[in-house]
Design brief:
Helix content: 10-25%
Largest sheet: 7 strands, antiparallel
Distance between the termini: 14 Å
Order of helices and strands: EEEHHEHEHHEEEEEEHH
Strand order of the largest sheet: 1-2-3-6-9-10-11
Number of helices: 7
Number of strands: 11
Radius of gyration: 16 Å
Oligomer: single chain
Structural class: alpha+beta
Length: about 230
């Protein structure tokens, strides 16, 4: 492991707004949007030990009991042609049966193109776990990007289909905080994470939200893929 800096409680949590429906679960925190029926964001801290979790229970996708109506259901995704795409991935939650089960709440799910979910998105998730092991912990926030709200939807409840997805990460190193962002279109995207890498500032400009409000601004302005590869 690399020499890492101090742990900061809640560093992964984006700036919130009045009216946000924020729910905290054991493994992640999410802000659920009752118009899109997708999370606006899902945030979690992943440690080196958690990245090596071994729990392997099988759980059904389900409505989150702690989130108000309206909310998505399995029926909305049935025969839609889209994956039930985890934001905080199952593999990041295998350190606890409860965390793993709660990762299947629709609070943590968005419609994803299968090729993208099993391709570029999966590769970024795998990279994130390697980073957690190298730097002891990584702070992560991700979610959907809607370029045109309601342009595409699935199910009777009209779950909105994202156009793109974002992920932003931060680590604490001996030389200070380092960050990187990713933006991936929700279609047949594959290839290495480097192809989708951008600064966290660029992600924030796309989604209109401050993702790491506790970090100094200069930590979000650029990225070095040598830290993340």
């Amino acid at each position: 492991a690399q020499v890492s800096g101090p742990r900061v409680e809640g560093l992964e949590l984006p700036a919130s707004e009045a009216g946000d429906d924020i729910v905290r679960h054991l493994g992640y925190t999410a802000s659920y949007n009752h118009t899109t029926l997708c999370p606006d964001w899902v945030a979690w801290e992943l440690t080196a030990a958690e990245a090596d979790g071994t729990e392997d229970g099988q759980y059904s996708f389900s409505r989150d009991p702690d989130v108000a109506w309206p909310k998505a259901s399995r029926e909305d995704y049935s025969r839609s042609g889209y994956d039930k795409g985890h934001m905080a991935p199952r593999a990041d939650m295998r350190w606890s049966c409860q965390a793993l089960e709660e990762s299947y709440y629709f609070t943590n799910i968005c419609p994803q193109d299968h090729a993208m979910n099993a391709g570029a998105w999966r590769k970024i998730e795998e990279m994130t776990r390697r980073v957690a092991k190298r730097y002891e912990r990584v702070w992560i926030v991700c979610g959907p990007v809607f370029d045109s709200i309601g342009a595409s939807h699935i199910g009777q409840a009209c779950v909105h289909v994202p156009d793109r997805f974002f992920k932003a990460m931060a680590v604490s190193t001996a030389d200070g905080y380092r960050t990187v962002g990713f933006i991936v279109e929700d279609n047949k995207q594959d290839g290495s994470p480097r192809r989708y890498a951008v600064s966290v500032d660029e992600v924030e400009a796309v989604i209109g939200r401050n993702l790491f409000p506790t970090l100094p601004e200069e930590a979000e302005q650029s990225f070095d893929m040598n830290i993340w590869r």
